[in-house]
Design goal:
- The chain has 479 residues and is of the alpha/beta class.
- 41% of the residues are buried.
Length: 479
Amino acid sequence: MLKISNTLTRKKETLSFQKQGEISLYVCGATVYDHCHVGHARSAIIFDMIRRYLEYRGFTVRFVKNYTDVDDKIIARAEKEGRSWHEVADEFILAYDRDMDRLGISRPTVAPKATEHIVEMVRLIEDLVAKNRAYIVDGDVYFDVASFKPYGKLSHRHLEDLMVGARVEVDPRKKNPLDFALWKQSKPGEPTWESPWGLGRPGWHIECSAMAMKHLGKTIDIHGGGEDLIFPHHENEIAQSEAFSGETFASTWVHHSFVTVDQEKMSKSLGNFFTIDEIFKKSAQFPEPVIAEVLRYYLLSTHYRSPIDFSDQGLSAAKNGLDNFYTLFQKIEEISGDAKPQQDETLKPFQKNFEAAMDDDFNTARAIGVLQELRATANHSLKKGDLSKAWSAAEMLRTLGRLLGVLCVSSQDWRYQAWTASFQTSNGLDEKTIQSLITDRESARQNKDWAKSDQIRNQLAEAGIIIEDRPDGTTRVKR
């Protein structure tokens, strides 16, 4: 039974859904004014993992993730660079898609742009005005927070407390400092659309409500995003959506914690961020599928509701952890060749433990622990000479790892080929030279020329090539 921590109720609840076998999932996407950083990568990887696991559990997932392609930050960048706002938005939509593809993120079912849904937004706002849930001031339209009694139910704060601590720009035209803009009268040079209130553009919050309801209906099974969106964005989405429809906007709210640097949230405003592109460039000695797999493994090694401090040391540890799995795969493939032993049913408890971890609020940290236990079992089976069990364990590792976007390999898979290819040249030694040195060392060992054997081992080690002496001969360890 899959249970999810619901921000709305502050309880871990059994997954509920409206249509049998189907899950509707909406995630707030990027505001496309700059390149994505590792914090955005964590969000994308988390919801990609959730989608993968729901599909593994037999659900059809309709996944909607939007682009906010009209926003103050986009307009500001366009003005600074002397470009049009839509040129900026288009550039960074392409950059976002490229980064997601590099990270192995599956494309959403629908990826709507806010600017393609202006008609839906205007209709929604018109309805709220007609119901006295919103009011017009000089071409701007504001949502009347006081008209929605449950306001604050997602952030678990009372309206009175929110008003006292409201960190919003004071506007004397508002009835309440917490009232938020549904429609903004455009300033000179800004993007504009026709509306009953004059030329203008939508507010941020109304965009997601309009897109979510158009593509998923009035009630969504799961709505997700970072914990920084709980208030005010998601709180405001609930207010305007439920005031419009009279129905529950989302049954389950899933929020992940931040990526931090030195215990501070990674953000562009603090200037302490690493873009996804920078991560790939700084690890350019490895093919991109390797880097993506390492980053996914690293970010999923911590539960999504806990913060994770980003560091080179953490990435290196993740790389070493993955290397252990690939070393196991290499050993088994070298021994088994084309033979495919029978599945070992005694390994079924590992699959059940993995599923139990994932069913418990997508606990990827515990699920990866199960994979590590399974790898240890496979290595132990190899030492005992039980190839059938070792091979079966490796196949299960690949199957379960694929749900996290790691270990999704076979000997024919391009990811595996890319991984092993990354070690085929090192510090000026080409593959032919490496193999020749390994052969020379094997001959030296047979002749008991231990000095030469050690000298070749050291030469290879200095070039980053690790070899291992086994009963069946010397072999190179593909890290």
